[in-house]
Write a structure and sequence with these properties.
about 180 residues; mainly beta; four-stranded mixed beta sheet; four-stranded antiparallel beta sheet
């Protein structure tokens, strides 16, 4: 009887004591970014220091809405710029969004600005991938059956997404504007 009373606490203690060791097998494996040189120095010591490539990528979307615009709809847009540095093998991603303003009738203007600062070791050979999205969203109001609570559920009424052809990394300090006209 005494053995049974001690068995459960002992098993619990054993499980708690071994948990950190068993979870260690799920830890991410660290692999070096660059090969090790002859004298134990990493290859990064041989590379010159990298200066940040900075600037702003702007998406200027003129959106012509041909779809039915629901009451209380919001027209919005987003933009994304991605670059993969071939030398350091590091990715850099920038993204942002904005709410469009009505220009006239059913034409909207939506501007997304993406300031960036990328530590690119090979900016003259890297390419920037660009994509944008335009959406029309509205809120669907839901009231509890007893009338005590109301919530607004966002609904995507219409959307469009496109990629642009890759571009060379702009010179540091540059502002690159992509003017796009779309219909949705």
């Amino acid at each position: 009887m005494q053995t049974r009373k001690l068995t459960l606490p002992f098993l619990l203690f054993l499980a708690l004591a071994l948990a950190p060791v068993s979870f260690g097998q799920f830890a991410p494996k660290h692999t070096p970014q660059r090969p090790v040189g002859n004298l134990g120095q990493t290859a990064s010591a041989e590379l010159p220091p990298v200066t940040a490539t900075t600037g702003t990528i702007t998406f200027r979307l003129t959106i012509n809405v041909k779809s039915v615009i629901p009451k209380n709809a919001v027209i919005g847009c987003s933009g994304e710029a991605s670059v993969f540095d071939d030398t350091s093998e590091l990715p850099f991603d920038e993204y942002g969004s904005a709410v469009a303003t009505l220009v006239s009738g059913t034409q909207y203007l939506c501007i997304v600005k993406l300031p960036y600062s990328w530590l690119l070791a090979s900016p003259t050979t890297d390419q920037v991938s660009l994509s944008y999205t335009a959406t029309m969203d509205y809120g669907y109001e839901v009231t509890a059956t007893n009338g005590t609570a109301t919530t607004v559920q966002p609904v995507n009424a219409r959307g469009t997404e496109h990629s642009l052809a890759p571009i060379a990394v702009p010179l540091s300090g540059a502002t690159t504007t992509n003017s796009i006209t779309i219909t949705m």
